[in-house]
Amino acid sequence: MPDGVHAPGITTGRLPKEQIEANFGDLHPPLSPHEAAVAADRCYFCHDAPCVAACPTEIDIPLFIRQIQAGNPKGAARTILSQNILGGMCARVCPTETLCEADCVRNTAEERPVEIGRLQRFATDTLMAGNEHPFTRAAPTGRRVAVVGAGPAGLACAHRLAMHGHDVTIFEARDKPGGLNEFGIAAYKTVDGFAAREVDWLLQIGGITVRTGQRLGDGLTLEALLGSHDAVFLGVGLGGVHALGIPGEDLPGVRDAVDFIADLRQARDLSALPVGRDVVVIGGGMTAVDAAVQSKLLGAENVTIAYRRGREEMPASRYEQDLAASKGVRLMFNVRPTRILGDGAVQGVELEYTDTSGGRVEGTGEHVTLVADQVLKAIGQTLDGAPEGVEVTGGKIAVTGAGRTSRDRVWAGGDCVAGGEDLTVTAVTQGRDAAEDIHASLTA
Amino acid sequence: MADLTTEFLGIRSPNPFWLASAPPTDKEYNVRRAFEAGWGGVVWKTLGEEGPPVVNVNGPRYGVIHGPDRRVLGLNNIELITDRPLEMNLEEIARVKADYPDRAVIVSLMVPCEEQAWKRILPRVAETGADGIELNFGCPHGMSERGMGSAVGQVPEYIEMVTRWCKENYDRPVIVKLTPNITDIRYPARAAKNGGADAVSLINTVSSITSVNLDTFSPEPSIDGKGSHGGYCGPAVKPIALNMVAEIARDPETAGLPISGIGGVTTWRDAAEFMALGAGTVQVCTAAMTYGFKVVQEMVSGLSDWMDAKGYASVSDFVGRAVPNVTDWQYLNLNYVAKARIDQDKCIKCGRCYAACEDTSHQAILMKEDRVFEVDDSECVACNLCVDVCPVEGCIDMVRLQPGEVDPRTGRVVEAEYGNWTTHPNNPMARAAE
Ligand SMILES: Cc1cc2nc3c(=O)[nH]c(=O)nc-3n(C[C@H](O)[C@H](O)[C@H](O)COP(=O)(O)OP(=O)(O)OC[C@H]3O[C@@H](n4cnc5c(N)ncnc54)[C@H](O)[C@@H]3O)c2cc1C
Ligand SMILES: Cc1cc2nc3c(=O)[nH]c(=O)nc-3n(C[C@H](O)[C@H](O)[C@H](O)COP(=O)(O)O)c2cc1C
Ligand code: SF4
Ligand code: SF4
Ligand code: SF4
């Protein structure tokens, strides 16, 4: 019997199992062939299309949509995947409303863009349903490259290198590849184990060995990798998290949102996952929104996102904000936590109102206290240390050009490098471009 | 509300929208429902000789060309004339005409090219009280293999001969339905007129193969792995039909011969265009087959509203008004100079005008910073391609240069006087201007 939505504390059984399963269904269900035909017909096949420029991987969007129009979804998938090997995942998780679809000319015409993301999913799903891998390896070059981290950046890099005939070994700290595709992205964006299926599909190219449980810095050194490989790519993401630095942070019930989400993504049975009744999420990015929404979907009664600046400055897009609001999440702006209250466990969060009109976050001295039995911290991730001799700037690995670090024969890309946008699609772009640069230097 | 009452060959109908001879008019059940829906008249599905009726294929008889969102742009059929007994059709026609005296009921006929055959059927048709007959000299498939339909319509002498037989043996109006599957439509039209036809109707369907099945390599529609050419109709054939109607309307030998316009009429606007080119009525098949009988309601209201807006009290006020404006290329005014103008407020920056002009025309559209598209008057020849490919209606206009202005492309001052090819200096055959 579910304890019900009102049960206090962090507990399971707030909602019936079936309800939870329904809540975590596909956020944007796939287009049927008919829907895809109708959606594809809306594309104008623009010249030098603005949507392409707005896609970090520069997929030839008018071409792939025309291929769908012409009844060739697999050809469309090849167009997509040749630029973005994780085009299937990107179709699900890209904030298209701020990327390709934001610049679609149909917005000007009727304030409704071509549904590029969903069409991309239609094409890639069609190809992957047949478990076909559309690329083949070039003749082996005998060159060896080590890729550290099996997230989007590492996978994209490895695939492109393998295509060029190099032998790639991926060293991944976790017991599963996929990076945040597997452990971070909201569950309702990538249902039915898609992340793992996509990795298996990607590896069909051949020439890539994945070694899990291999953490760089934990017995494994960059020196050693450079000794046994011609080049190294670092795609380690951001393993650390920022701390709030306020009293009460260590109370039971206070957690990093990324850990909460990772548990959720790995749970075999979501109804066995405990969640608070009154959840407060601190932060304003995609992680905050995902943690809040998923808490709500698990059955938390009151979920509040507390963000220290105004709505316009919130890193989560307006679309994400509206998604949260539509699920019943309360968005609070211009508040920052000053204390976490509780005796043996979290009981509340004290927030101070802020003024950001001057650009900086200034406390106003006024406070408000929210009841809370679970607090999720989502105030940003940090680089969890960089290997010896690799220069870091602004807390991230410094790179020039296509991901060249300060160390010879070492490249980096994805969330761990400076200048990225912390999106799956940018990680893919950087991994791919670094691979091309590595290839060029190995064959020079 | 404008009066849509139409008088065509003395036959009155409440509006000029008739259903063409085809499945919509194949039987009493359909025609009664069509009249209830508001159609002004029907041309009954073509009747053949007494005796065992023709048979149709028992597999698919239609092929199609789709536009975006599976909009039917063109339909192709391999159906023959009516496959129901003559007697049954005649009885139904008589009943329907008696019940709907205000609607036009025309009987389409196709019998072998022998006078006796026509003499046998015409009195039977006369008995039904139908308002007139239409001679189907147009069907391009099946019947033509048997020496009928377009096999007759492609030989002007036969048209004239059969028309004359009909005029001699039937005392109500005779309309000759023409096939477009011919090089110059004026010859069959002249033949019909010479045979005494009261009117021509056109076009029947265009010989066509709509598609090939790339798995079986059979043309579609496929009957057990084989296909036969069919007759094409629907919006796709409208331009062909409009031209043929105009050719007949402006040919001195047939000018004034009443025309019933057919081919792709889908909205009131299509109908108004046929009528402006001289058609006294229009006939519709594919639009009804695609959307049902109710489409006529849009046609009626649209035509009437347009007439009100233009101040036309009756359809005769505008029938034929575009005919004097149809001319030969050689008489077009070469001193008319226009330039494309892009309305930046309407432009959505898709760049299609640029791609079209840059790749296939005159490199006269400039793509500037921030995707601002502008016309370069010194290259623009006013070909209209950009207007045609622009997805936003009214975004690109053709603006006429005023006499006295300099055309930056040629450097010449635009002349006020009309001047055409016949007097142009580049024309080796040029006549001195009078
Ligand atoms: C909760 C959440 C939701 C998100 N939602 C979206 C979204 O909807 N859309 C979107 O576009 N982006 C989203 N993002 C961002 C996106 O997931 C990342 O930008 C992207 O995954 C970065 O890819 P990466 O390969 O650089 O890093 P990661 O995906 O973090 O992968 C790094 C990999 O390296 C491994 N690793 C780390 N250190 C070592 C080491 N020392 N040795 C070996 N292996 C190591 C890690 O285990 C991991 O597998 C979200 C992020 C989070 C946290
Ligand atoms: C299925 C079908 C059957 C037709 N049968 C006849 C016919 O028996 N007699 C005839 O004169 N025309 C026939 N036609 C031609 C139509 O009457 C008409 O001339 C042609 O379809 C063009 O008009 P539309 O574009 O409005 O369809 C037929 C057309 C179709 C689609
Ligand atoms: S990868 Fe993302 S940004 Fe690029 S086209 Fe696909 S959905 Fe749009
Ligand atoms: S901008 Fe929109 S309409 Fe133009 S090509 Fe891209 S998706 Fe198609
Ligand atoms: S085709 Fe039309 S909308 Fe597109 S760029 Fe040209 S003028 Fe603008």
UniProtKB/TrEMBL annotation, chain A:
Residues annotated as domain FAD/NAD(P)-binding: 144-431
GO MF annotations in UniProt: iron-sulfur cluster binding; oxidoreductase activity
Q: Which residues form the Dihydroprymidine dehydrogenase domain?
A: 22-129
Name used for this protein in its record: Glutamate synthase (NADPH/NADH) small chain
* Protein species of origin: Jhaorihella thermophila
From TrEMBL, chain B:
Question: What is the name attached to this protein's record?
Answer: dihydrouracil dehydrogenase (NAD(+))
Lineage of the organism:
Bacteria, Pseudomonadati, Pseudomonadota, Alphaproteobacteria, Rhodobacterales
SUBUNIT field: Heterotetramer of 2 PreA and 2 PreT subunits.
What is stated as this protein's family in its record? Belongs to the dihydropyrimidine dehydrogenase family.
Origin organism is Jhaorihella thermophila
Report one GO cellular component: cytoplasm
Q: What's in the keyword line of the UniProt record?
A: Iron, Iron-sulfur, Metal-binding, Oxidoreductase
The 4Fe-4S ferredoxin-type domain, residue ranges: 338-370, 371-401
Pfam families in the record, alphabetically?
DHO_dh, Fer4_21
**Annotated EC:** 1.3.1.1
